[in-house]
Records
---
Amino acid sequence: MKVLVIGGGAREHALCRSLSQDPAVTELHCAPGNAGIARVAALHPVDQLDGAAVTALARELGADLVVVGPEAPLVAGVADPLRAAGIPVFGPSAEAAQLEGSKAFAKDVMAGAGVPTARSYVCTTEQEAAEALDAFGAPYVVKDDGLAAGKGVVVTEDRAVALEHAKGCDRVVIEEYLDGPEVSLFAITDGTTVLPLVPAQDFKRALDGDQGPNTGGMGAYTPLPWAPEGLVEEVLATVLQPTVDELRRRGTPFSGLLYAGLALTSRGTRVIEFNARFGDPETQVVLARLRTPLAGVLLAAANGTLAELEPLRWDEDAAVTVVLASEGYPANPRTGDPIEGLDEAEADGTAFVLHAGTTSGAAGEVLTAGGRVLSVTATGADLAEARAKAYAGLAKISFKGAQHRTDIAAKAAQ
Ligand code: AMP
C-alpha cells in the first residue's frame, strides 16, 4: 500500500512512524513533513491547503490512501477533491470538518444529537457578549468561533479580560464553565461505524501546575488510571455514535477521526469540544500503544468497511509524551536554532523523538522551525516508568531557550 500523509507536525510524525512499521505499507510519503518525518517518509514540498496540488501529488504517486493530519487542510476542504478523484482519503469533508471549524456548528449538531455539552450563547456584538458573560458568571469561558490552533479559548475569572477577548473575535461562543478533569477520546469512523481508541489526557497550559496561557498542548499520557470504569462505552453511546449518526442524517457524513474533548464534571460527562482530526500531542501516546497495524484501520475508515475490522489490539503498557517548545511559545516562538542531542535521546531505545516544528539546515543539521519543536515519547510498564524514560530522553536534547513542563503525568503516576 502506498500512503501519503498530509501535514508536518508531531502528530504526522507519529502517524508516519506507525505507518512505517506496518508491513502492508510499501511506500510512505508526506507533504510537507519535517526533518524527523524525512527519516521514515519521502517528503514533497506541496502546499497542504491546496486541494488540487495534493490531489495531483496523490495521483502522481499512485497513492492507495491519503491521510490528512491537521485541521487547517480539512476545514479548507482538501479531502473533497481527493474523494472526488476516487482516491481513498482518511479525513472528513469540508462540510463535516465544520464540527471543528465552527464551534457554533458543533453546538448545533450536539443539540440535534442530544449530546451533553456546556450551555452556551453565540454572540456577534459586544452587548450580546456582555449579557452572556453575566448570564453565566465567573469563571468565564469565551471561545473564538473559528479555528485558532487551540489558542482561541480564554478561561478567566476576570470579566474585563473575557470581554476583551470577545471583542477581538467576529463571532464568539460564550459558555458555562465545566469543572472536573478532562479526557481526550478519539474515535475512528467511516460515517456509520465508530471505533473508539484508548482515552488520553493532555496538558493545555504552558506552565507547570496548569499555569500560563493555553497552548496546542504540552504533553500527554495514556492510560488514565483514575478514569471511571465504563467511560469509553458511555462516551461511545452518549457522544460519539449519536454525533456520527446526526451528521449522517444531515447529509454531511463524517469519516475520519472524531476527537471528543470531555470534562468529567460533578453533573456527568460533558463535551468541551470536538476536533475533526487526531489530537496533538495525544496521538503520540495513543499510537504508541496501538498494536493493530495502522494503515488497514485508516483504509477501512476511508472505504466505509470499519464494521468488518477485527477489534483493535492494544499494549498494556503506559505511554507519556513531553513537548519541548521554543522560547516565547505560544505568543512569540523563536525559530532557527540548532537542536543538539537528538540521536543521544534515542540511542538506548528508551525514548523516541517525534518532530513538530523542525527543519533541516544547509549542512544537514536540525533547526527549530516552530513553537512546539519536539515531542519526546516513551512507553513503560506503568506511567511512572514511561514518564521517567520520556524525561530521561528529553534531558539529552537542547536548543537555545527550550522550554517544557516538568509535571506531565506526574499526578496520575503517583
Ligand atoms: P478548546 O479549544 O475548546 O479545547 O478549549 C481549550 C481548553 O479550554 C480546554 O481544554 C479546557 O481546558 C478549557 N475550556 C474550554 N471550554 C471550557 C469550559 N466550558 N469550561 C471549562 N474549561 C473550558
---
Amino acid sequence: MAESRLSRMITIERHILMEQASLPDATGELTQLLYDIALAGKLIASRTTRAGLEDILGAAGRENVQGEQVQKLDVYAQNAMFQLNDHTGRLAVMASEEEEDIIPIPERYPKGKYVLIFEPLDGSSNIDYNVAVGTIFAIYHRRTEEGTPGKSEDVLQKGADICAAGYMVYGSSTMLVYTAGNGVNGFTLDPAIGEFLLSHPNIKLPDEPKYYSVNQGYTKYWTEGLRRYTAWLQGEEGNQHSLSLRYIGSMVADIHRNLLAGGVFFYPADSKDPKKPHGKLRLLYEANPMAYIVEQAGGYGSTGLGPIREVVPESLHQRIPLFLGNRDLVEKAEEFITKYDG
Ligand code: AFP
C-alpha cells in the first residue's frame, strides 16, 4: 500500500526525537530544550503577526482591550524565551542580547547541564515596517559543576563548543531552522495545526551563489580591502561573475535567504562609530550561532581574519566583524582584507 502523505509528515518533535535516537548517549534533555525553544517561537510568531493590531488596540506600556498589559515585542520575546526555560531543570544559566548580565536560573528551580544564549528579537527596528524579524539561539554544555548556579564562564565559551543552534524567522511564514551538529533542517509552522513541519530537510548552501548582503550605505567608512572585496562581488577586481545585492537589515532574514539561495552576508568593522570599532553584531548572540548553522550547511563564518567560532569571548556583549556564507566567497573576503588592510 502506498505511504500516505500524513505518515510522511515530520513534526519538529518527531525529527528531534529521531535525531536523539541516533545518538547513543542522548538523555533526551537537549530534545526537550529544543522543543521548549520551538514553543517560545510559536508564541513570538503569534505576536509578531499581530504587531500592527497591537498598535491599534493599545500602545506599549498601556492595557489592551482584553485588559492585558501591552508589551513591546522584544520584551515579549525575551519573556517568552526566559519563562519557558527557567523552571525546567535543563539549564544552568542563560544570557540574552537584551540583558546586561547573565540571567541566573531562579533559586527555587533545579539547575541543569545546558546553557542557553539567545537574541530574542533580531531586527526589531524593522517591526514597524512589516519586515521579517527573528530569534537566534545557541546551546552549550555548562563548564561549572552540575547542580550549582551557572556562571559567566559557562556563557563565555567559544563558538567551536556549541552543541546546538538555530533561529526562528517570522516572515511570510514562520520557520525554525536548527542544527545539533548533524546537518541543518528547516521547519515551517503550519498555523492551522500549530506544528512546525519539516519543509527544508538537510539544507546545503547551493554551489552557485546568488546574493551578497551588506549595508552598502556605509561604504565611505570602509577599508580599502572591503571596498575592493565588494567590487569583486560585483564582478570587478578580476572576477568574471557578479552577484545581486539583497539587504533587508534583519540578519536572520538576510542569512536565511542566502542559506537557501547561496551567497555571503557581511557586517564588517567600519569607522562609522568610534565606539563600535568591530561593527555592530554580537559574538555570542548572533555571530557564533549563525556561523555554526552556516558551517553545518557547508559554508564558513569568518571575522575577515579567521574563523569566528575560534574567537575566545572576553565579554558578554562583545561585537565582532562577520562574513557568513559560501566558503569560497568568505575566504575571498579574508584574502582581500589580508592583502589590502593587513
Ligand atoms: P535591530 O535589532 O536594532 O533592528 O538591529 C538589527 C541588526 O542587529 C541585524 O539584524 C541587522 O543585520 C543589522 O542590525 C542591521 O544594521 P544596519 O542598519 O547598521 O545595517
